[in-house]
Amino acid sequence: MHIYIHVPFCTSKCPYCAFGSFSDKFSLAKSYFRALKLEVRDFLAKNPHAQISTLFIGGGTPSAVDAGLYDEIFALLAPHFTAKAEISSEANPNSASPAWLRAMCELGVNRISFGAQSFNDAKLKFLGRAHSAAQIFLAVQNAKAAGFDNINLDLIYASKFDDKRNLKFEMDALARCEVPHLSAYALSLEENTPFFGRESFKRESVALAKFLFALAADSGFRQYEISNFAARGLRCKHNLAYWRGEDYVGFGAFAVGTSAQMRLSSPKNLQDYIADPLQKQREALSAQDKKLERIFLGLRCVLGFEAQILDAAELSNAQLLVREKKLKFAEGKFYNLNFLLADEIALFITQESRHGR
Question: Does 354 score more than 70 pLDDT?
Fold first, then answer.
């Protein structure tokens, strides 16, 4: 079983961020965690034999709230963790203090993911980040001292600051951190954010993306998804479960989960969630929905997808792409050879089924 917990509090709101988070509602934090505990307890009462193989605490910024708030949540969940459960938490370099990191490690968190975003202080200021490059290095040191070995750093590229010189600077700095995982995301200009429509803020370039991927490979990071790179084989098990299309449970406001042919969504209003954390919006997922998701996600990562899920027209399209050396076919599955073309390839394969043939 896979679980996601959403913590919707941030010390500041980044201008590119469209996730459900607030920098002005910390007065609700204790009430929120009481509601979260109620939701977790209710789920476990209905699933007393649950075995949790991955847990991911995201946000928002989980390190923006006191580590003590997680105590009762972990007291409920800990008996259900499998022996080798991957327990991840996101954190920001400015708010993940040594004490917070030690406390989370003692609770059982064994993977930490820092929202570094850049080692360029000017770029950090442009992105609205509340930390400096120096704080990233210190946060990584503190995490290692607290007992973390499995550490991820998030970086943002394709901003107006990014050319080959800056990307080389970023990757050289990352290499000095000696962490086993990198997540690199192209800057997106999301609706309902201050960055929306500001095209001059982006520098989109396939050549630069390939350059970044090559730098990552040179630093020992093996790409296993369009935005994720692992060294020492330390891939994120939680994300791999998403990409395989496995069911997962979402706890907290804004959280989403899946169960069989159903998508379950929590309220996107913080007060509504606190008032009734058990309410869920339910969306039925058709077999076609699940198939299309499997194709799109499989093409974005090394997992690929099974040929048997395709109808005759889709199979013909996929086989054409194999002949054109855009896909690889092996042992009954199709694999993408260029993650940057993932969405275009998926659209080509599924073009007729998406239009209700």
Answer: no
Taking residues 127-144, report their average pLDDT: 97
What residues make up the domain containing 320? Answer: 287-356
pLDDT at 356: 52
Mean per-residue pLDDT, 42-71:
97
Q: Mean per-residue pLDDT for 190-219? A: 94
Among 213, 243, 273, residue at a domain's last position: 243
Average pLDDT over residues 173-184: 97
Looking at the domain assignment, is residue 120 inside a domain?
yes
* Per-residue pLDDT, 260: 83
What per-residue confidence (pLDDT) applies to 188?
93
Return the amino acid letter for 53.
S
| Number of domains the chain is built from | 2
**Does one domain contain both 158 and 292?**
no
Asked whether the beta carbons of 84 and 111 are under 8 A apart, the reply is no
278, part of any domain: no
